Structure formats: structure tokens, C-alpha cells
């Protein structure tokens, strides 16, 4: 597949200007509509290519695919075919969509293959067996350390030596568009003697990207940084909702629990790591030098612009943050190498999130905790309203894309509305 910006590709599909879903992207997702059962599709412009129809009509004839592989509620079985096969599927679809290829363009089946994206309901793309959340932005970790610990020693002693992370729950990861209820739990303010119980008063988002694993390993095996990207199928935007007051009271000594486990929202289209290749870039210099198993031979960061919006009920969205995935101190290869170095096995469809992505500038912080500096600096919206944390009725929207040499590859968006506590 030509993912190189030196080869300009055009398609017979009408792709709106600034669309994330260009001929260079072709992400995988699972969708349904009023007439169609859940199935695998590829996004292009405002359309979805129904891969099951292409398969039934013989367009993948030389790939020897398992029968019904695209009539699935999840991508797991497709991903498990391996990168050789999934690359060939994506390459074949790209070939069929090229402007000068009449195979599908002039075929009577075209109308059945091309589904309107606005008429489709996007589903959770993978059956997630396990979920891990990292803490890999040095700016975010430093900000949190300044707020809650010693400003002079914001980072804990281990932070620059290993990718800190925790193993979370997978059950409450939901696709974009599904609303969440404000969580309830215990919290203890400094001015009260005993903890109180009730709806969280400090509901927050966390701007993250997550990768999905595409191969399994056996218990006891580990993955090197050199091999890591062979095990990464693709990426989604990830909003790791957080209840800061619940989290602050519970996290010592074992870490996040109820303050995180109530919901995480993901974008429905999985952008393959191959589609992001042209946005690869060097990460920050790592000082002190990392241990050998965490050293990387090639750049492991990606220059992907990220944006966060808050939309109060009945109003237009206000952009409140602009960040970039290239800021991450620990890259995805290091995360996966560290995750498995003790022999922990991974499975197809596991999800590993980056942790909050913050930059150096105040407008590049990836959480309300940082943007409002623990509630002391309210964030102004376009309407004139202010926010310290997320309020009931607010919708949080995250977007992400790479743009280089006139080529754009993006994730669409992940959004969710906050409903009152049940």
C-alpha cells in the first residue's frame, strides 16, 4: 500500500475537504443500520465500504479469507488473521477506490457496497479482553506532581526509568456517542473530618490515544521494542473519564479504582499503524538513559494533532485544548515492551491507553485538572460560561489527526454527554 506522501492518490469517492477519512487512511470499524446487521467496514469520506458485500461479490477472491469474516460484531477475528492479510485487505480496498479503477466504480453493486456514514450506528470496534492505562506524558505527570506532592520534586523517582501504568477494567469502555452518568463515590475534603458520599463534584476528561494489540503471546514470553509494532494493529482516540475527588481519596495505596472505572469513551474507527507511518517523529530525549530493554532503534512517536471541546447543552462546542501525541515521553513500543517484560501475556484486542497527553503550554494540557489547575483557574467557554470541571449536560468532544504534505489521516472524534448521577 502506498502510504508514502510522495505518491499522490485520488479517489472516485467524494471526500470532503479536511476529512479525516482520506484514501490514505482507510480505518476499520464495525457498524450497523436499520437494514444491516453488525459488520466490518472501512471509512472513506462520508461513506463506509461494506467489506462483507465486497467479499460476497468476489472482490477479495485471491485472499482466501474465512467465510463470513466481515459479518462480525467485532474486529478481533479479522485482526487475528495477521498483518499480512489485513494489509492486503486494506490495499485491495484502496486499489478499488482509486479514481482510475473502474472495477467497483462502474459496477452495479457499488450502491450496495457504499453505505452512508451518517445513517450508520458505529459499534465498539473490538471485544476488549484487557485494558491497561499508562502515565506517559512527562508534562502531565509533572503538573499532577506539582499539584498534589512537592513542586520541587514533582516526578516520583521511578518515573524516568519505566513507563508507569496500571491494569484497569475493560467492561465500561464504550464507543463514541454513548452518554455517561456522573459517578458516585466517597470523597474527603481537607476541611471535613470523615469522608462523605455522593455524586462526583470534580468530573474530568483525560485526552489519550490507545493502541489495540493484534497478536497474542504465551505466558512467560516478552516483546522487544524492535518487535512491538508488529503486535500493534492500530489506534483509537481515548477519553479516560476521571472523578478527581473520588480518585484523590481512594488512590493510596493501590491506585485508581472507582474514580476511573465508571467509563472510558473511544472513537469507533481503528486507524492502522501503517496509515500513521508518515507522521512518525522523534520523541523527547530520555535522560537518564533507559535500560537496554527499553531502548529503541527507530523514532517511536507520531506527530498527531489533538483537540478537546466542551459543548454545554443547547450551545456550540468551545475548543479548550490543543495538544499533540508527539509530546509523549514513553512511546508505544516502550509501553508494550515494559508491559510484557515480566512474561505477562497479551491477546488480540487488548487495549493500552497512553495516559493523559499534555504539552508544555497551558492550552495544551489534556485534562480539566490541569487546565483549571485543580479548580483555581476557571476555563472560559466561547459563550462566556466558565468551567472548573465537567458539568451535567456537557458533551466532551475529542478530535485527532495527522497532516503532512497535503495528506490528512485522522480518527474522526470521540464524544460523550454527561448525564446526572443515577
Number of strands: 26
Shape: globular
Given as residue ranges, the uncertain stretches (5+ residues, pLDDT < 50) are 2-6
Percent strand equals: 25-35%
- The CATH topology annotation of the largest domain reads as Fumarylacetoacetate hydrolase, domain 2
Which CATH class of the largest domain applies here?
Alpha Beta
Question: Residue share in helices?
Answer: 10-25%
For the record, what is the CATH homologous superfamily label of the largest domain? Fumarylacetoacetase-like, C-terminal domain
How would you characterize the largest beta sheet? 8 strands, mixed
Q: Write down the overall mean pLDDT.
A: 97
Number of domains: 2
Q: Could you explain how this protein is built, in words?
A:
The protein folds into two domains: 28-122, SH3 type barrels (Roll), CATH 2.30.30.230; 131-419, Fumarylacetoacetase-like, C-terminal domain (Fumarylacetoacetate hydrolase, domain 2, Alpha-Beta Complex), CATH 3.90.850.10. The chain is globular. The longest helix is centred in the first third of the chain and has 15 residues, at 83-97. Mean pLDDT is 97; it is low at 2-6. It is α+β, with helices and mostly antiparallel strands. Strands 6, 7, 8, 13, 14, 16, 17 and 22 form an eight-stranded mixed β-sheet that branches. Strands 4-3-2-1-5 form a five-stranded antiparallel β-sheet. Strands 9-26-25-20-21 form a five-stranded mixed β-sheet, with no helix packed on it. It contains ten helices and 26 strands.
Amino acid at each position: 500500500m502506498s502510504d508514502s506522501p510522495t505518491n499522490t492518490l485520488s479517489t472516485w469517492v467524494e471526500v470532503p475537504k479536511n476529512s479525516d477519512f482520506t484514501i490514505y487512511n482507510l480505518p476499520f470499524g464495525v457498524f450497523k443500520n436499520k437494514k444491516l446487521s453488525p459488520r466490518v467496514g472501512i471509512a472513506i469520506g462520508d461513506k463506509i465500504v461494506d467489506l462483507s458485500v465486497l467479499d460476497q461479490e468476489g472482490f477479495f477472491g485471491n485472499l482466501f479469507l474465512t467465510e463470513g469474516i466481515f459479518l462480525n460484531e467485532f474486529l478481533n477475528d479479522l485482526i487475528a488473521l495477521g498483518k499480512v492479510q489485513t494489509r492486503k485487505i486494506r490495499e485491495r480496498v484502496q486499489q478499488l477506490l482509486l479514481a482510475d479503477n473502474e472495477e467497483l466504480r462502474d459496477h452495479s453493486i457499488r450502491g450496495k457496497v457504499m453505505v452512508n456514514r451518517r445513517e450508520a450506528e458505529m459499534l465498539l470496534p473490538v471485544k476488549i479482553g484487557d485494558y491497561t492505562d499508562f502515565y506517559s506524558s512527562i508534562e502531565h505527570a509533572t503538573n499532577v506532581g506539582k499539584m498534589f506532592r512537592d513542586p520541587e520534586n514533582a516526578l516520583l523517582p521511578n518515573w524516568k526509568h519505566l513507563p508507569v501504568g496500571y491494569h484497569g477494567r475493560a467492561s465500561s469502555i464504550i464507543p463514541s456517542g454513548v452518554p455517561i452518568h456522573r459517578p458516585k463515590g466517597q470523597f474527603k475534603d481537607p476541611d471535613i473530618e470523615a469522608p462523605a458520599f455522593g455524586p462526583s463534584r470534580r468530573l474530568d476528561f483525560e485526552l489519550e490515544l490507545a493502541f489495540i494489540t493484534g497478536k497474542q503471546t504465551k505466558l512467560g514470553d516478552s516483546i522487544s521494542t524492535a518487535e512491538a509494532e508488529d503486535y500493534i494493529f492500530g489506534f483509537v482516540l481515548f477519553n479516560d473519564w476521571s472523578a478527581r475527588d473520588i480518585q484523590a481519596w481512594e488512590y493510596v495505596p493501590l491506585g485508581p479504582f472507582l474514580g476511573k472505572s465508571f467509563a472510558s469513551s473511544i472513537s469507533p474507527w481503528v486507524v492502522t499503524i501503517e496509515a500513521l507511518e508518515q507522521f512518525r517523529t522523534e520523541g523527547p530525549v530520555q535522560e537518564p538513559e533507559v535500560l537496554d530493554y527499553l531502548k529503541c532503534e527507530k523514532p517511536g512517536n507520531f506527530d498527531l494533532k489533538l483537540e478537546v471541546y466542551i459543548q454545554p447543552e443547547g450551545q456550540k462546542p468551545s475548543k479548550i485544548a490543543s495538544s499533540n501525541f508527539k509530546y509523549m515521553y514513553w512511546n508505544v513500543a516502550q509501553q508494550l515492551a515494559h508491559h510484557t517484560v515480566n512474561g505477562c501475556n497479551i491477546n488480540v484486542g487488548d487495549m493500552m491507553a497512553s495516559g493523559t497527553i499534555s504539552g508544555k503550554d497551558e492550552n495544551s494540557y489534556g485534562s480539566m485538572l490541569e487546565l483549571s489547575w485543580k479548580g483555581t483557574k476557571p476555563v472560559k467557554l466561547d459563550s462566556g460560561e466558565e468551567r472548573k470541571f465537567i458539568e451535567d449536560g456537557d458533551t466532551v468532544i475529542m478530535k485527532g489527526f495527522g497532516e503532512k504534505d497535503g495528506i490528512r489521516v485522522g480518527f474522526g472524534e470521540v464524544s460523550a454527554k454527561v448525564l446526572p448521577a443515577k
